[in-house]
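[job 4471] stage=fold_predict status=RUNNING
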Amino acid sequence: MPQDAPLNGGALTEPAGPVRRVAEMQAKLHRWAAAGPGRRFDDLFNLVHDPATLLVAYSRVAGNLGARTAGVDGMTVADVERHIGVPGFLDDLRVQVKTGTFRPLPVRERKIPKPGGSGKVRRLGIPTVADRVVQAALKLVLEPIFEADFLPVSYGFRPKRRAQDAIAEIHYYGTHGYRWVLDADIEACFDSIDHVALMDRVRTRIKDKRVLTLVKAFLKAGILTELGDRRDTHTGTPQGGILSPLLANIALTVLDEHLMAGWRPDATMASEYRRAQLRKRGEATWRLVRYADDFVVLVHGGEDHAQALREDVATMLAPLGLRLSPAKTRVVHLSDGFDFLGFHIQWRRKRGTNKWHVYTFIAKRPIRSLKAKVRALTRRTSQQDLGTVLTRLNLVAHGWANYFRHAVAKNVFSMLDNFIWKRVIRMLIARHRWSWTDVRRHFVTPVGRWRPISAGEIELRPIAAIPVTRYRWRATRIPSPWSTTVNA
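[job 4471] inference complete, writing structure tokens
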């Protein structure tokens, strides 16, 4: 390891030397990629196994919640630090990658229920710690290159972008006449992407055969099922891997480029004047908003235009091995509303007026999901101490509320505060065999005010106190993380 990159097996923070070195490397790659749209990058392999890259990659893996989850080798990050030591682990890994002897192990399959109580499951693939580090190193090198090509209509799993940006863009265009919506979902996207089509997209920018071989090795690593069977992966990039979201975005850039071709400079929808001329001739204009494999196409036109786009999108996705989900894909008018990323977006009349606006509400599914989590934490037979319960409730509820605080959420927050309070009170009544008189004695002050539920210094904090504000659409003003060199 370089002298400016000392290793500390117990530390999860990134040393300043490697962070700065990696940031400068990423800034250069991004600048070169942006300056040369057709440029193919060679000699990237040395950057992947560079000691600084591997050290930063390891710190990212170790700082992730998944660090406590083992792959097929049964090793967690804590096991690596305890039994091997970080310096030795990274040195051995670097030698394997550099000499070409590194081989990814199959990912460990884990099925988790999909939200909403549909009974369906989502398959996750859990790589080993070594595979995660190499994937993170690949991402550090590849992401700044492909970010130069990604269009601003894509928001999922990209730096400095978030779901609220996608919702704000829908809000903006919905307000400006885009009232028909193709609400689409790609069926089993991460499991179905064609490897040949994906690697062809990667090769448009990457020329280094050793990097391409490494990416393909992860795609073909296979899956160890929950029953212990080995299954080859002929398609898809398993969810759970660090590299998977980037590869999915690379593949789905085809969709972005196809639907947004008219918005390029000097194209038919490049200016508001040209878009207005199209609509005068009875044609439609549209705008794509995509978050990973979930996307909507907002149409300024009629229902027939939206239906035509649905067929066009389905035809375009077929070469990638993808198809639209029949159950989740529909054409809807904005006045009927639709759900996207947990929000319910609807064009409706403002109460007491004749003015119509686009409103963003919290969808029913995430509310049900939060209530289910609260019920699980506040079972009447729970033996967890009150402080632990309150801590978990605060974390879950406030994380949820901060995500939705830009929607019309004030009444929902108040309703959920009441729900959580009643669940905790009922748990305490059952635990201590209290009567309602006992409850009032513990939580009502002499002047008749209710005290917050607390355990020592830990209080149940209301989410209604979180300010509800409008999220402003940032359009093309979202900064690139590599626009300038980062000093560490």
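[job 4471] summary: Residues 1-12, 484-488 have pLDDT under 50 and may be disordered.
[job 4471] exit 0
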